[in-house]
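pasting N-acetylgalactosamine kinase for the record, 854 residues
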Amino acid sequence: MPFPGSLAFSIRRTLLRHSDQSLSSVISRFASSTKDSHYAHAFEAMLDAPNVLHLSVDSEESIEQGKLIPRIDLKHIGTASVLGRREKNEDRLLACQLSPNHLLFGVFDGHGGSAAAEFARSVLPESIRYGLAALQNTVRKRGQSLRTTDLALFEPVMEHAFLQVNNLMMRHFYHYATARERLWAGTTATVVLLLNSHQVVVGHVGDSRALFSRHGSVTALTTNHDPNSTVLLNDICTDDDGRGMTEAARIKKCGGKVITNSLGVPVVNGRLGMTRSLGDPQLKPFGVTAKPQLTSMKVRHSSASFLALVSDGVTYVMSDEEIQSTIASCRTPRDAAECVVENALLFGSDDNASALVIPFGSWAFIMSANEDDQLPVYPLNEFGAQLAEQLNARGLKCQFVVCAPGRVNLIGEHIDYNGYAVLPMALEQAVHLAVATSPTKSVILSSSDTNYESATVSVEEALTFGSDGPPVAVQWFHYPLCAYHGIADYVKQNRMNWEPPSLALHVGGAEFGGLWPAAGLSSSSALVVASAIAIAHAAGLRIPRRELAGLCAQCERYVGMQGGGMDQAASLLGCENNAILIEFTKPLVTVRPVPLPSDVVFVVAHSGVHARKAATSMYNERVSECRLAAKILTLNSPKRTVFVDNKPLCLVDAQLAWGMARPGDMVRSVAGSTSIVKRFLKPGITDRSELSSVPLSAEDIDSCLTPRTKNMSEFHLQERAEHVYAEAERTLSFYDLCNPLTPAGDVENAQVITQKLGELMNESQRSCAQLYDCSCPALDELISICRSAGAIGSRLTGAGWGGCTVSLVPKAIVSEFMNRVRTEYYMKKGMKEEAVKLIFVSKPGRSAGYMAVN
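structre below
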């Protein structure tokens, strides 16, 4: 709540007047009104201490172990705050620069409205700024200077600011606030003053938290000020023996009461679950004080990772270690802050959740990236060598070759973009891309397949490809161009320096160990991955594979695809000889190797029907239908979840909003009751007019649609949601069955496991065909033949509407199986010449990488 101009002027005038006096006199005057007279003497005693060192706190350079200390700037700070399941966000974050070498940060969690948090965030910086000036003046009058001063000298500045802001806040509320705010408005405050990027002073009241990470471990710099705290504190008052008192004992000594409410939570006078806060005028006489807990420390950048401030909406559901682990897995502080608050929601927080992350010298993103997450380098294979020769023959000297495998999805179709885990494996077949430097400021794109036209565009065109929306007709060379744009976005987002490379990219067709196009084996995504690797490697950018996977998924938005990231992750993070379970957790994808039974193989067979995802709207229509279903289910959940910036919801969000443990719970009927999905989503066609009765506004509907689906008028919501939840459950079951297998794929009851895996694949196909409507007659026929030929399980793989099938086949009959499929399917359809190459045994291949050319 912004305070009126007249009061703002009064506050500023008071602070300016104080800045011309010694801080000790200001403290003395303030202490006399707050009955904390002992406070004034502490500051003078510290100035008289003989062990005060002298080094200007305003010096522009500081040295630690012979090296310049990294300078922390506001642009390095990560902040995030989400509404959660509350009607209003009462949290406030503060990040400001008081002087060239003094930064101030804070998290304020308001109660009784946001007025107190907003007031504290607005006034506290001015109070501390003038307090620092007063401290400087006081020291100079003593003939001294502030040079590497004992940090304890700055603690009175912090404490005075807290007490002063509290006093001004109550005065402001008395004159200008509502009746409710005058009585009950208050806020927590956890504030950090950072001096010269390496000296820290923390002031704290309430139950937000400051966490410091060093050498991979985390330490809480603050204590929750609640009646339940058993920590002995002697910063305010002591018992008769001079020992520290618990907060509850202090409240009782001041005449207050600690009452346990109906939820079993101890509260002061039945009103407040904290013993220290700013504001709360009705509770100040009963011991709820604004005097902060103070901590000061010097930071060694060589070992310190970060300092994080988080509100109780985070700490209520996440331990200090979980917060530290989340932050440590992120590349940038901004990602870290966003991931902390998003994970708090995922873990069930009902409150506003806020986080502020300050990076120090050993923060991961300024160090060399983890070698385990870097792209592998492979020996040059025959396909790469042939492509390199073709490029050389054009007068362009090949520098290196990139290979990026396709993938076959064993189970988990159309659920990655709904937030659920999928279970693919990388193929041995891969897109190969020969790379040379272009002689002009251009990008030259060519293919070994003469059916694909070459293209040349300027580097600037490549960097901005798709900015005005995806192309109406998608061409093969648009995929490398969208990779250029995606890399440019990444560089800008991470404030990296680069020179966009001028490249000649020559892609190999299927005859070069490649992938059939439009076969459901992710050839287009593999081309994007290969192109992104080529651009990053040529530009000298080291992008970890897990980040590159997400980057490539975002790239495809520029050709109109709204996918979920499975294809790119499988290509970049594939595990040779294993399938992988890919979980889409913030901030990076998580990949787990999945052993497969040793007595079976997976056979891939092409239906002969080409399915180009980007050339049709069917794929994006399913994305939009799932978003609408998710929004309806979420709006009808017991705890309606509201997400930041009205981002489109996916079906995993709806599951979390309903508090269901597993995705299958959303479609499971319990004790004869209707499942959640059937209760709120109509079967069959739902048109736009029916959506308004949910109710969904026109804006709600449009937010779920994409540029290519904005004209949709009919939706199949129940069927799409039923498929997604059941398929996600099947994927988890598939993983649970394979997990006990040894690396060699052996287990005692292997035959039983194999049979169950086949059943899950068959159920998946039924769901894809009947509920998600992504099969086609040719696929249905081919799958039927595969099952009759001996497949334990068979299903479509990839987006569907054509492309390939994948079948689980016993090793003992694989030759017989393949011959029978060739005879009964390909020969009958007049595909005699293609029969040999359109069906093959698929083995888990290696991940994407590059090959040096001598």
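The CA atoms of residues 5 and 295 lie 34 Å apart.
The first strand starts at residue 63 and ends at 64.
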